[in-house]
Design goal:
This protein is α+β, with helices and mostly antiparallel strands. Helices cover 19% and strands 34% of the residues. This is Glyoxalase/bleomycin resistance protein/dioxygenase superfamily protein. GO terms for molecular function: dioxygenase activity. InterPro entries: Glyas_Bleomycin-R_OHBP_Dase, VOC_core.
Length: 323
């Protein structure tokens, strides 16, 4: 893979390729993986390798080679979906961090991860910025920023890469045509208390920039900030009214990554496919709909027609740095 950019001795972190979006469900990992393949056309990835000449576990023999980490007490499956890598996490120990996360927040997106060139320097810069480090996995070569120091967003840094990454010309196994055609991940939504504050934190830590043009709810219902974080879009939503569909999420679960929005070429066609799949729809807006998590293995998903998504990244301008 092309090496991530060199990290100077100052923030923001210089991000390489997006490493994965982690998902957790209260259904068994193989069941989630099979659903993602059947419904969304997920294709298995072969696993990871160390960017530099460091020790790293041998490739997993699992068909989707995430493998099992004794240090993190978690099992993972790696998949390529709609142009991005995903990981499905399952706890192997009821006291593990993944098990704790599921009890506290419920099913849904768990964390983002990016590859960086110099993991040691990134860790030291974050510590100097009073960002706590958690979830360190030495064999897995990764650690997380504590979400209380990153606006409620759980972010992992790693110096490993995907062995068969299609972005580097890798070839993935063929799978059957999916039941629902998805073209890309339009955005991943995080529910927060103050979207502008969290945007400032992420700008300071990662260089994230605000973008405009995507559909959103009225400002009197919820504050919405869309951030381009290197190569993915993160949507920050702060409910301002009980009319916000996210108000109950914040009240019950607190700040967290909450849902994935899939881009589809034909929303009406997707809705017809939902009927055949037994996927319920709980809300609709022009060009968008929200499926019932109870019918998607507990995972909150939003769906939007490609035609209503902002073409490219229309930057709003630099965000103010947060002290």
């Amino acid at each position: 893979m092309p090496a991530p950019p060199s990290q100077p001795p100052a923030l923001p972190v210089r991000l390489g390729d997006f490493h994965r979006l982690g998902l957790v469900s209260d259904h068994p990992g193989p069941e989630v993986a099979a659903w993602l393949e059947r419904v969304l056309g997920a294709r298995p990835l072969a696993g990871t390798a160390a960017l530099h000449d460091f020790w790293h576990p041998a490739p997993s023999t699992d068909p989707a080679g995430g493998g099992t980490s004794a240090e993190s007490a978690a099992r993972s499956w790696l998949w390529w979906i709609a142009g991005l890598p995903f990981a499905v996490f399952e706890a192997t120990d009821d006291t593990s961090a993944v098990a704790d996360f599921l009890r506290r927040y419920g099913p849904g997106p768990h964390s983002f991860a990016w590859c960086v060139n110099d993991l040691w320097t990134v860790e030291q810069l974050l510590r100097r910025a009073d960002v706590r480090i958690t979830g360190t996995d030495v064999p897995g070569r990764h650690f997380f920023m504590h979400p209380k120091d990153s606006g409620g967003i759980l972010v992992e840094w790693t110096d490993t890469y995907l062995r068969d990454d299609p972005r580097d010309g890798g070839t993935l196994p063929a799978v059957a045509a999916p039941a629902v055609e998805v073209t890309h991940v339009a955005w991943t939504t995080a529910v927060v208390r103050d979207a502008a504050r969290v945007a400032g934190v992420l700008h300071r830590l990662t260089g994230a920039q605000e973008i405009a043009g995507n559909p959103r709810a009225d400002e009197d219902i919820e504050e919405t900030v869309d951030l381009l974080v290197h190569d993915i879009v993160l949507r920050l939503i702060a409910p301002r009214s009980a009319r916000s569909r996210h108000a109950e999420v914040l009240e019950r679960r607190g700040e967290r990554l909450y849902s994935v929005c899939w881009g589809v070429p034909d929303l009406r066609g997707a809705a017809h496919a939902f009927e055949d799949l037994g996927i319920g729809v709980v809300d609709e807006a022009p060009g968008r709909l929200w499926s019932d998590p109870a019918t998607t293995l507990g995972l909150p998903f939003e769906w939007t027609e490609d035609s209503v998504v902002a073409p490219g990244a229309a930057l709003e301008g630099p965000l103010p740095r947060t002290p």
